[in-house]
């Protein structure tokens, strides 16, 4: 039996603030380790400097944080030194940007080792974030170049959404691409759906809809569910985006009663928040930003047994298919969204059916064990 290839993931950032490495890269790495691979996740922790220089084992995965002393050139050099020492068969770059993108560029220029295969993982369309985050033009242009160069210069690509698969086929039509959405871990056997409250939960980065949409939704829902509160949870990548959203919410002060702005929710308190909810909403505009992403938050909310009303945009339509969520067209009005939410709140049996279908679909189609096997098969194709 052939020895499984040694795999090294190169992350663009750390585990604490942003979600990709924690919620996507590590679960895939763990599944590969369970299947006999030697797996390392290499991290430049510029956004979590408290981890710099630390190494640990995570369910069989070697997690390595390089030191940050000396600035970007030395950090990049340390990343490359770690790769040289590890001598992996596969280097899987996570996002074609920042340090990870620079590592990809360097390795591609020096791809003399016949055994090394360089792959890229994309879970977002990074260019869509430039205007939202207010990047200056030179930085936005560099990141756009880095993204498209990265897509063209790899032996294969894993993509978290079907939109990204199609976009990659346009940029690099002859490149092997593996559709690899975000997955879920099976809950404990004793875990039951937790939805028991009357509130409506809205996880947001303040870019899914315009402030006017949320105001109209709330105005339409209040008469139909007068004892319901709207729980707005999450933080923007750029804090100014969240501040502008709240300032532009076209509601008088008395109509904002019942809206709770929770900000960032610590993972340790999520269970308590879920228990307040009778329904969660995932509205989204039909733009590349939302078509490209694959929402881990939507998957985990469905798995927790929270009935979901969502726009059928991008991967939300895939997660919510077959009755796993109440899907509405991308152009559904705020009033139509409110009517659907009110029906879920008023008919608990409908909510239980949604929750059961969601759990069955997720554990069948999106278990990390299944996705890890798909990734392993893709590696075999690339090596072959």
From TrEMBL:
It holds the Pfam family Glyco_trans_4_4. GO terms for molecular function: glycosyltransferase activity. Keywords: Transferase. Residues 19-183 form the Glycosyltransferase subfamily 4-like N-terminal domain. InterPro entries: Glyco_trans_4-like_N. This is Glycosyltransferase family 4 protein. It comes from Litorilinea aerophila.
